[in-house]
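Input:
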Amino acid sequence: MRLPAFPWGAPTRPGGVPLPPVERETGVYYDTSWSRRYEARLARALLLEGVTRPLVHTVIPPRVEGLDRIEGLEAPAVFAANHNSHLDTPLILSTLPRRFRHRTVVAGAADYFFDTKWKAAVWSLTVAAVPIERIRVSRRFLELGMGLLADGWSVVIYPEGGRSPDGWAQPFIAGVAYLAYRARVPLVPLHIAGTSEALPKGARRLRPGRTAVTFGRPMPPDPDEDPRRLSARLEAEVAALADEHATDWWQARRRAAAGATPALSGPDAPGWRRSWARTPPSAASRSWPHKGP
Amino acid sequence: MSPRPGFVLEVDRSSPPSLLWHGEGFRLERLPVGTRVVHPPEPLAAIEEPDEAIRHALEHPQGDSAPLSALLRPGMRLTIAFDDVSLPLPPMRAPDVRQRVIEAVLDTAAAAGVDDVVLMAALALHRRMTEPELRHALGDRIYDAFAPHGLLVQHDAEDPSNLEHLGQTEMGEDVEINKRAATSDLIVYVNINLVAMDGGHKSVATGLASYRSLRHHHNVHTMVHSRSFMDQERSELHSSNWRMGRHLAASGVKVFQIETTLNNDTFPDPFRFLSRREWEWTARDRATYLATTAGLARAPDRVKRTIFQSMRAPVGLTSVQAGEVEAVHRLTTANVYRQQLVEVEGQSDVLLMGLPYICPYNVNSIMNPILVMCLGLGYFFNLYRGKPLVRPGGALIMSHPTPWAFDPVFHPSYIDFFEQVLAETTDPAEIEEKYEQSFATDPWYIHLYRTGHAYHGVHPFYMWYWGAHALDHLGRVIIVGGDPAAVRRLGFKSASTLPDALEMAEDVVGRHPSITYLRCPPLLMADVR
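Output:
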């Protein structure tokens, strides 16, 4: 079909004319403030309590550990978790203590969850998603995040910047620690296991199975600490939680003290060996990771 | 975002059609591939606190001048002269910058205890302003305070009892200006510098002068040697005015010059698309364009004229400077250039322009054929620095309806000039030699100028001289969509469509000519390298 010519239709663009900056409304520019209004929060609470949590507890029943570590913690806080699957977000939201659960936003990749208006609206409404750039924590997100934290909202954020392609963690972005550092709120390390088996990246089918969420000890902001160092500590804490989940708390602490905690990012080896290391011989038949002798 | 500068765009196959003004209307024309379109810069940011800026300028003068408050004293004679209705174009949204400046000057004068104050519209040989026009320019507060007492006057260049001859310049030019102004202790001149031609010594030496004085620079020789009259450095018109201005200063006439520059935010909502680059038109712009053109196509001329003449420009003040004339004007010119200058590489064979509904001399009136010539060949052709946009012997194509229509109240002498003089010859030098004196001294025209709202009898001659440089330079002038009889009377060729006009131009400049389209308004000035 031939489109109507200018001026009935849109003008064509002469060659050599640079595109003007346009007022963008999607991606990181998407305004999510509407999703934090009372009506949206009520709808989300009903969805979470009536649908999401029952489904999570039925389909991917989580074992939640370390809740005692955050018993005295008051909102707001920044929850930083490893990221394997789209199930991570509903899992975290379902397992967060009630005082956080309905006043928490989730940082979602702007290019994935906010690339069209309808997708942005769906994710903003259902999980209170806010857009973040994958590769760095931009000034825009920093301002948004600090504003939300100042308003008493907690933030769930995945410092890896996206789902792991092979189940092993990717390097953490220092900006997450910087957000907590700037906002002077505690950073809570979180480790999630089992979701990479249930719905790994690229999978089309959900495989029900057990999952685990381990809360770490909140890391209070230290104004004298370099945010990059804080980020390294966060990564180490999540790795220790992973170790704790794979073994036990004491072994994990000992290894942590000795600086021998297995790296979150897995062995420094070619692809097949990394996959091999993630799946010990008998793991295929188990839905729960092997915890050692 | 900072405003984008003007630029030259070469039309390619994916360029949308370009907007071309056509009197009280406009249309989209697809220009030949390769045509250079000179786009005006975007409006500069306006000063946020104009009143504060004006007061600051009055107290921090440029050059060798004391602050205004130090120049005012009880018992002195103060004349505040201001630019007439010909500036700015279109008339600006109230409050007019003249009102802002004059209110600040009057506040200072009142504080200094100056009683003898006269406000004077610097008309030169222009028509007298009407009451609504004066009220718009000055505001009701000033008008009601001065007009009822006869203290708001309009310069009368034909009142021998109110003219003061101050001798001659070294080049033998008579310097004769308004007596009240010449005998004042201080003239405060309030300018609106819309283009680079305005202001400087030209303000007093032209605005408050008599025919006897004006004829020394408003003549064919001067205009042909002003290349262009928008470029003071290369303008004989300005050289003459500068000599007169310096002579005035040497004769003891003290001038405190206030000059203001405006951005080129020319069209109000919903006509903003007229300033926008076509490929950036939004759906709303396109809808407004379609609705406007459809409406205008059906509207009678009077209605169209009323609509356009009631347009008020949302222009913003970009600078204000006050003090000694030449120091002030240097700064002003730089500020005008800052807004309007667009670099253009080289000349072309054909220059294309769409002429809008307004020029300095038809505010609230009809743009008659002589004013069409003056706007195209005078003002737009001269919007250059360096060299003209079109090569010597090139063709100029203008788009305008050019109706055989005149305003008998404002332009009586134009009618006779068109009917009698142009029927005989269109050669500026011959016109000047044979006919100027009879029109300039015609008692009926003088009577209408002094008592009515008519332009002076000699004014249509000046309009013709204004285009003398272009006539001298160009090989052919073609008007697209004009009244063929009126266009022929002007000595130009008439074409019904742009492709026809381009074909006619090829007779003069050869096949496949290079074309430059001056997309103006908003105002720009081409810096041709």
